[in-house]
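## retry 2 of 3
previous attempt timed out at serialization; input unchanged, resubmitting
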Amino acid sequence: MDTDSVRLFVLAAEKLNISAAGRDLGMAPAVASARLAKLETTLGADLLHRSTRKVSLSLEGEEFLPYAREILAQEDAGRTALGLGKPNATGRLRFAAPSSFAQLYIAPLLPEFLALHAGVDLDLRLSDTAFDLIEGSFDLALRSAPLTGSSLKGRKLADDDRVLCAAPAYLETHGVLTHPDDLASHDLIAFKDQTAKPLVTDTGEAAQVDPGQGRCRLIVDDGASQRVATLAGAGISANSLWLVHRDLADGSLVRVLPEYRVDDRSVLWLVYPRTNVLTAKVRVFIDFLLARIGKAPAWGRA
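## retry succeeded, writing output
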């Protein structure tokens, strides 16, 4: 299989523009179209739907795309092993991440990354709703959860300690908690799953916070909105330390049951499809985030 044609297909799939993909590889539009048509003939499938107005991926094209990227990654790795030079990081990188974390810690770093890697374009999907990496053809995602799923690999970016907190005004009105059992008589702000979360102290004492047992009158699906509601005095919530550490430092929020932290094994993972070789663009982005965020997280530990 002609890997130059495979590279052309991947670029065309990312740009949804055959002519633009061809130009990036030094091909005239007619040559690029002919190369893609020959690849489709070789594979026996139409990879792209073409019209006079737009280009879109076919179902077969969506299924072939992750394998095409793997073919290119294997070629780059093979060339490097033969001493033919370090592969350049090029192409569009599709990255999914929770919006709250991305706004605070990733978005401010993007100009630096783009300046360092002129050949890489970033296509970001920022939402607290988890995306399916395989079905969405994502190259990389940030997830805050225990790493599960045999189809994924991951690199730890940082710990994700979570703590209970509330606004001082709320505690003045409703009283300070002295034991986890007190949570049952307080207003709780729950994240969308509303699951009970285990609590633990440094000495191993265990308890839990259960929205089903407290007065849970507010449910949210966005971390930033949960923080704002907590600041406004809507109740007690469990928040990632990376989200609220500044509020705790300036007194806008106060730790509730400060000897306890949420013990749900959540870690900030950079996850990617389980392949033998990472593409250069993914590898440099992972290394960049590990260097800028992972070595010494600004929020510290609970």
